[in-house]
Write a structure and sequence with these properties.
With about 260 residues, the chain is mainly α. The protein is about 65% helix and about 10% strand. The strands form 3 sheets. A 3-stranded antiparallel β-sheet has the order 3-5-4. The protein is globular.
């Protein structure tokens, strides 16, 4: 696939950036609705986003570079070249949520209430953003047969025949598609949870659990996982995240922390 969406005055604009940017815009638009569900201030969630988004992007890049340091140590200027990919969602979430926590603490705003409202917005942005990996021919899985890939639409078939990089020219698992579809399912589940649950933190921790559950299995198919020795980093982080989120959800049933109307 051609990773360039279009050019402006000779400067190439990459699909990767277009899709991530579009995902962010959709997320911010959706936040208007999720804030109404929980009687929250949309202006406040915008302020949180203005702080968390840039810090999250920095964190996503830093996380990726740390685990791929061998690629960058001899050419550190490439650390700043994100146009071709190299953003790790786990790093973005860790840094972005931490920034949101600090901001809400300083402003004396209820962190869990606003992050609950943000949860469906985050996952829908991820669902769209994964298509950037498709256009970059990255984040794909192991080699598959032509009989297997014929089960997908023609443009997916063409995009998953990869001839660049260190792997041999062949068809590969469209793991970006699996994750995008899984994220879309999680989005609908989170919207139901957001409407039905009156417990703080349930939406965000359900997001953490459900995304991590899907990512754990999808990661096992990938050929370009970030590694820490013999461990796939994303699988390890996903397991830890699932344990923590399940613990919180179980605790919440015995907690009296529920939503109240915010003005």
């Amino acid at each position: 696939m051609n990773p360039i969406a279009f050019t402006i005055l000779g400067f190439p604009i990459m699909w990767y950036g277009v899709l991530i940017g579009s995902g962010i815009m959709i997320a911010l638009f959706l936040a208007q609705y999720t804030c109404k569900i929980k009687n929250l201030s949309y202006d406040t969630i915008l302020n949180i986003a203005l702080i968390s988004l840039p810090i999250g992007i920095i964190g996503a890049r830093l996380y990726y570079v740390i685990f791929e340091w061998g690629t960058y140590k001899n050419n550190p200027i490439e650390i700043f070249n994100t146009r071709g990919g190299g953003l790790a969602i786990h790093g973005g979430l860790i840094f972005g949520l931490t920034a949101a926590l600090i901001y809400t603490y300083i402003k004396k705003v209820d962190f869990l209430s606003y992050i609950d409202a943000a949860a469906p917005c985050i996952i829908i942005a991820q669902s769209l953003g994964r298509w950037g990996n498709f256009f970059n021919s990255e984040a794909h899985g192991r080699e598959v047969s032509i009989e297997f890939i014929k089960n997908f639409p023609v443009f997916i078939q063409k995009g998953m025949y990869i001839q660049e990089g260190s792997l041999p020219p062949a068809y590969y698992h469209p793991t970006f598609l699996y994750e995008s579809f899984w994220n879309l399912i999680v989005f609908f589940i989170l919207m139901i949870i957001l409407r039905k649950s009156n417990k703080k933190g349930i939406a965000i921790f359900s997001y953490i659990f459900l995304y991590s559950f899907g990512r754990f299995f999808i990661e096992a198919l990938r050929t370009d996982s970030l590694m820490l020795g013999p461990l796939r980093v994303a699988q390890f982080v996903s397991l830890v995240a699932m344990v923590i989120s399940l613990a919180y959800i179980a605790y919440s049933y015995y907690s009296k922390h529920s939503y109240k109307k915010h003005h």
